[in-house]
Structures are given as C-alpha cells and as structure tokens.
Amino acid sequence: MxxxxxxxxxxxxxxxxxxxxRPDGYHExxxxxxxxxxxxxxxxxxxxxxxIRLHSDxxxxxxxxxxLIVKAAELLRSRVGLPELGASCRLHKRIPIGAGLAGGSSxxxxxxxxxxxxxxxGLGKRRLQAxxxxxxxxxxxxxxxxxQLCFGRGERLEPVExxxxxxxxxxxxKHPDASxxxxxxxxxxxxxxxxxxxxxxxxxxxxxxxxxxGPLLAALAGTGPLPPLRNDLQAVVAPEVESVRTGxxxxxxxxxxxxxxMSGSGPSLFALYPDLASAEVARTGLAGTLEALGFxxxxxxxxxxxxxxxxx
Length: 312
Ligand code: C5P
Fold this sequence. Notes:
The protein is an alpha+beta fold. It has two domains: 4-161, 2-Layer Sandwich (Ribosomal Protein S5, domain 2), CATH 3.30.230.10; 169-301, GHMP kinase, C-terminal domain (Alpha-Beta Plaits), CATH 3.30.70.890. Helices cover 36% and strands 27% of the residues. Helix 1 (68-79) runs parallel beside helix 2 (103-118) and helix 2 (103-118) packs antiparallel against helix 3. It is globular. The model has no long low-confidence stretch (mean pLDDT 95).
C-alpha cells in the first residue's frame, strides 16, 4: 500500500478561562480555539512486522512511547483488537514544541485519522473523537478544527460561525529558549487563583452562556469589534517568563494589531490582524527587534479545518 499524508494544523486560543476544578483533577475550562495554517506533516506507511515506528526531522522530539503519535497508534490498534497492525510515521515538524499551539495534540489527532484510513478501520468521527479525548484534552479540537467553543477539559466542542475565517491572520512569536509545561501552568493557576474558582455546574454553565453570548463571539460572527482577549494562564505564566512579557508588549505596540494574547499555556504569543498582508507588515516592522531579542516569528491564516488527508 502506498504512503498516506496528513496535515496537522496548530491552534491558538482566542479565549481561555479557567472556571474551576473537576472531580478528576483537571480544570473545567471555557475556551475558544482557532485552527491556523501553520502545520506539521505526517506520512504513514504500513509495516509488515507489527512494529510502530516514528522518525522525526526535529531531533529534540522524543520518538519513543512518550510521543503522542506512538500513543495514538498503540491506543487505536489495541481498541480495535488487531495487534498485528503496524505502521511507520515520518513527521515533518514545523509547529514549535512546548509552545501552547497543540503541536503534539494535532500530531496525535493526525495519527488517529491517518491510521484509521491506512488500516482500513472505518471507525467514524464519533469513535475517533472518543479516542482523541483519551489521548489529551486538546486532541478532539485538533481532530475537528476550525473555530470551536471548547468546554469541559477542552474536549466538549461547539462549532462557532466565523465570518472572517480565512481572512483574519495571526503573527505568532516564540522565544526558542522558553518552554512551559502545561501541568506546571495549571498547577500554578490553582495555587494562585483557586480561591476564585467556581464550584458547581450551574455556575459553570452560566459562564459558558456568557461566552456564547459575549462580545468575542459577536466579533467572530462579524457583528462587533474584537474585544481584548482573555487567557487566565497568561496571568500566571507572564510573571515567570520574561519572553512572554516582552513579546506581548512588542505585539501590542504594532500598528494595526486587533488583539494580542498568549496561546494556551504558552509561551507562544500571537497578535491578530484583518488579513495576512497586515500580519506580514507587522512582522516586517518588528524584524530588527525580533532578531535582536532572538524571537522566532510566523505569519499564518486563521480558519481552515482540523487534521486532514493530503491528496496528491
Ligand atoms: O489533557 P492533557 O494531557 O493535554 O493535559 C495535560 C495536563 O494539563 C494535565 O495533566 C493537567 O495537569 C493539565 N490540565 C488541566 N485541566 C485541563 C487540561 C489540562 O489541569 N482541562
């Protein structure tokens, strides 16, 4: 059988609100996640010896059982009860690692879709979504993509109509020396903010409803201006990570910027622009400063879909 290619897009958080703690120890969240067109590429081929192998062009990435690609492959084959299935995956990594852009989660989602097709399992969206939620809180979003409200741990999705999807663009910044562990960021949030956590479903639902009916969703529907973006983890990560503070300040000062925030648990930052050309202008305006401070920068379009099969 010939190789199968999958595109695995990154995401940014247009909203990340920590509502409270759940009985399972995770945080109850209310988020708006947005796919962007910065993506990893994965190529899958069957193996004859039932092995699961991963080759990555990013040397810093583990390729053993700790990688979500390997975890997703093992989970899929054990759930369908076919241990004789094997696959090798070549990963072309473009999404920065440990950045809050769901690169690992998107690779995991791509593996579910890729191997479902390669192994001819025909599991369908609902079963793949259930496996995605087992792999990680952001994996269901990565499978679906686009613009979604994400509730629960992040796995409960509600699609959002995005009038300007495909036009709106982001300038992303990340300092290569900075990396934030997601469990650390949530742990720190709990230390600093748990006195303010809500603690019952009625209050959680009240906040979800405020988000559904609030100014961010109106702006995405094209019926209002973009409000300041909220990321509760930004408030706990920024004091600890200098490049987050510096990057946010640089982006805020750029003319034409619609809104600025950290993505997920960071440390990547983004600014939104009406279109890709405006994001490129901002990057050019900042080029000297970014180089002097050692930031990496990407311009990308918002919108699109989640992981998808690449047809030749
Ligand atoms: O689900 P995932 O493995 O991506 O989560 C990584 C870690 O982030 C969890 O172990 C937990 O510490 C934290 N987390 C959380 N609440 C969420 C999602 C993640 O506390 N809703």
